[in-house]
Design brief:
This protein is about 35% helix and about 25% strand. The strands form seven sheets. It has a seven-stranded mixed beta sheet, sandwiched between helices. Strands 11-10-9-12-13-23 form a six-stranded mixed beta sheet, sandwiched between helices. Strands 7-8-24 form a three-stranded antiparallel beta sheet. With about 500 residues, it is of the alpha/beta class. The structure holds nicotinamide-adenine-dinucleotide.
């Protein structure tokens, strides 16, 4: 029988017990994986193993996909009216809201987040997205199209069928919901492959989905490794679409596999090396705070992190000093401590990866102005780190580090800043700080990225699309645009009197 993971939280910020089913959730039931394997779950704040969950394989993925296919044919899709799909999504949002604190505690513990951030950002954003797409469920429809008097033509927005959702470890619940909410609103059934590093919140979500009353098989979760479970989901011939969020390296692989198997549709939300441009006329105090937040939130493990910071020469010295001071003052610690502003990175692997980038920055001759080391003691903590005097071809300038490390570069003119900002294979996000509205719009238009934030950090809204240019991926999540990612358009032509 599948087990249960239980944890007693006795912290100032959250007291209470949390339970999570550790089986696979297939066809509305908790089941053991066919091979009986498990995955260890770690607490990144101290490196200890806190539990085990099931490790699904290709065999489990096959069972889950078949359950999703059967549910699509029998009890979901357009057979269920949009208002009913919406009602279930509203119910799910209510359940998340009712259990928001314990869900946030699970997420904070598993991913090494600050509990406050998990509660007021991750879980709240998931609730907001569920409500937003619940509203869309009965409002997405086709058109009637004028052609000739002899023909009646219309379009339908049909679901794709079974969709595979593959999610990373940095915002495990929130990113899963960015995909789940529009996929269910438009009538698809789901197999979710959660990251092996942070499996707990998706399993908890499955309990709420069952309680909300979604028919069995509409939503399935298989926890497991990428090369096995993730690969099997991407290869499966009954899966009509894969929506993937993760690294550019694996995204490329997902696309290749999809092309080689059944040419399934693919949405890719990939990595970034997002530019931040701070002009001389920016509000210095506010821009330092926002730049810091967009760089160091969740220890820099943010796809949209503003890691390349271009500062105009008139304020360069003052800005750099203020940014280094702000970085040094960030309180690191366990996510459940009141004073904690920044937790650890997610795993030993990630810790080593981030430290090796810091080492390469030092060796390539960049000047360290803040941080630059692991925090002594237990847990995977890396000091908020800033480098200056970098060259465009350094590894720390070109590659996504996915940790609390930023580089600062001086520039003279707007043209020079735009050119440097666009000198990257990525194009996920960007940030501009200036009080000149014309310049803000001009620069936003010139930057090659899917999102441009002006005088603000990475603050997203469910109504506004998010997605990459260049090698940061294609397709959009959130907003009306995400509905297109989970539907296909059928055109119907009806003869009103053309005879042969
Ligand atoms: P990753 O690419 O290693 O893994 C992502 C997911 O893919 C995991 O669930 C993993 O198990 C699975 N996977 C691994 N190999 C697979 C394979 N062969 N086939 C199918 N699935 C496979 O990424 P990560 O380390 O979990 O997350 C960090 C990366 O995610 C960073 O590059 C970050 O920029 C990116 N990210 C992007 C966005 C966005 O919206 N653009 C958001 C968050 C994270």
């Amino acid at each position: 029988m599948p087990g249960t993971w239980t944890h007693e939280f006795k912290t100032d910020l959250f007291k209470g017990s949390a339970q999570v089913n550790t089986g696979l959730f297939i066809n509305g039931k908790w089941v053991d994986p066919v091979d009986g394997e498990t995955i260890d779950v770690y607490n990144p704040a101290d490196g200890s193993v806190i539990g085990k969950v099931s490790c699904g394989s290709a065999k489990d993925i096959d069972l889950a996909v078949n359950a999703a296919k059967a549910a699509y044919k029998s009890s979901w899709g357009l057979k269920v009216p949009g208002f009913e799909r919406g009602r279930l999504l509203y119910k799910l949002a209510e359940l998340l809201e009712k259990n928001a604190d314990s869900l946030a505690a699970i997420e904070a513990l598993d991913a090494g987040k600050s509990f406050q951030h998990a509660r007021h950002m991750d879980v709240q954003d998931a609730i907001n997205n569920l409500r937003y797409y619940a509203g869309w469920a009965d409002k997405t429809h086709g058109q009637t199209i004028e052609t000739t008097e002899a023909k009646f033509a219309y379009t339908r927005h049909e679901p794709i069928g079974v969709v595979g959702l593959i999610v990373p470890w940095n915002f495990p619940l929130m990113i899963a919901v960015w995909k789940i909410a529009p996929a269910l609103a438009t009538g698809n059934t789901i197999v979710l492959k959660q990251s092996e590093v942070t499996p707990l919140s998706a399993l908890k979500l499955a309990e709420f989905i069952k309680e909300a009353g979604f028919p069995d098989g509409v939503f399935n979760v298989v926890t497991g490794f990428g090369q096995t479970a993730g690969q099997a989901l991407t290869e499966h011939p009954l899966v009509g679409k894969v929506s993937f969020t993760g690294s550019t390296l694996i995204g490329r692989k997902v696309m290749e596999t999809a092309a080689k198997t059944n040419l399934k549709r693919v949405t890719l939300e990939l990595g970034g090396k997002s530019p931040t441009i701070v002009f001389d006329d920016a509000d210095l105090e506010q821009s330092v705070k926002w730049v810091c937040a967009a760089l160091f939130h969740h220890s820099g493990q943010m796809c949209a992190a503003g890691t390349r910071i271009f500062v105009q020469e008139g304020i360069y010295d003052t800005f750099l000093r203020a940014l280094a001071g702000a970085a040094a003052s960030i309180q690191q610690g366990d996510g459940f401590a009141k004073s904690t502003q920044q937790g650890p990175v997610v795993s030993q692997v990630q810790l080593e990866r981030v430290l090796s980038y810091i080492e390469s920055g030092k060796q390539e001759g960049a000047t360290l102005v803040a941080g630059g080391a692991r925090r002594p003691g237990a847990g995977y903590f890396v000091q908020p780190t800033i480098f200056a005097d970098v060259k465009p071809d350094m590894k720390i300038v070109r590659e996504e580090i996915f940790g609390p490390v930023g580089v600062v570069v001086k520039f003279k003119t707007e043209e020079e800043a735009i050119e440097a900002a666009n000198d990257t294979e990525y194009g996920l996000s960007s940030y501009v700080y200036t009080q000149n509205v014309s310049r803000a719009i001009r620069v936003s238009n010139a930057i090659e990225a899917g999102t441009c934030f002006v005088n603000v950090g990475s603050v997203l809204c469910p109504q506004v699309p998010f997605g990459g240019y260049k090698q940061s991926g294609h397709g959009k999540e959130m907003g009306e645009y995400a509905l297109e990612a989970f539907t296909q358009v059928k055109a119907v032509h009806i003869n009103l009197g053309m005879n042969l």
